[in-house]
Amino acid sequence: MTNVWDSRADAYRSSKTHASGEDLDRVVELCEPKPGLKVLDVASGGGFVAERLRAEGCSVVTLDPSPGMRADVIARAEDIPFDDGSFDVVVTRIAPHHFEDVRRAVAELKSVSSITTIRLDTLFSSERHEEAERLRDPSHVRNYTLEEWRGLLEAAGLELEQEETFEKVHPLEEWLARTGCERADAERVRELLADRMTADGTAWTDTKVVLKARKSQS
User: Fold this and answer.
1) At 82, phi and psi to the nearest 5?
2) Which pLDDT tens digit goes with each residue over 127-158?
3) Structural domains of the chain, with CATH
4) pLDDT of residue 217
5) How far is Cα 73 from Cα 79, in angstroms, rounded to an integer?
6) In which band, very low, low, confident or very high, does the pLDDT at 36 lie, cut at 50, 70 and 90?
7) Distance CA 152, CA 146 (A)
8) DSSP letters for 187-215
9) Residues 44-70, mean pLDDT to the nearest whole number
10) DSSP letters of 33-66?
């Protein structure tokens, strides 16, 4: 997967969908940024969360498995190379659906945070949607339901503090082009996402969930 993401890095760094939006604004707000706050941005991708937090004076370390993403640390979410409680806040945005072992990744995020973990990802909507996601991007593992996310947090020893959802619009052609999905595959993706398309057929929508949790005190 790393080589694939290296080849996509420029497209993701220039993606307007990733660089802005209510979901990004809310993730940053929930981190409660302030000068000196120690933050680990996991699967940092284009670095948009880190950029915003650094502008608020936070001390941010970025971590991503792809060297092409130019993160401070090259590692998977399942293998975070930091001691327990090394960061005040650990955050990940629009990435967990790529994690090969999401349970292990959630446990790692919890372990290295001393205060809060915040994650944002796409909610499961249907098997059609999942098929479209995998066809468009074979590195897609799975989107999870709210119930599954609550269970994953509880199993890791995290207490859910806040849960919010957002509808996000994705310009279709740009979204397909970022992963090189074209021709027959692209046409099949369009068919599978027919129920998620905007009226003019130029974009589709999904639902993002942002979850803020703290280590359980029980």
Assistant:
1) -130, 155
2) 999 999 999 999 999 999 999 999 999 999 99
3) 2-125+140-169+206-215 (3.40.50.150)
4) 73
5) 11
6) very high
7) 10
8) HHHHHHTGGGB-TTSSEEEEEEEEEEEEE
9) 97
10) --TT-EEEEET-TT-HHHHHHHHTT-EEEEEES-
The residues with which 159 forms a beta bridge, in sequence order, are: 214
* Residue owning tokens 């796409």: 122
């955050």: which residue's tokens?
A: 91
- Using an 8 Å Cβ cutoff, are 80 and 106 in contact? no
* Distant-in-sequence, close-in-space partners of 139: CB < 8 Å, separation ≥ 6: 1, 4, 5, 98
CA dist 93 and 209 (Å) reads 10
In one-letter notation, the amino acid at residue 185 is: D
For residue 35, is it left (φ>0), alpha (ψ between -120 and 50) or beta? beta
Residue 80's pLDDT is 98
**What's the pTM value of the predicted model, to 2 decimals?**
0.94
Please enumerate in sequence order all residues whose Cβ is within 8 A of that of 68, keeping only pairs 6 or more positions apart, or say none.
Answer: 5, 6, 7, 8, 9
Residue 12 pLDDT > 90? no
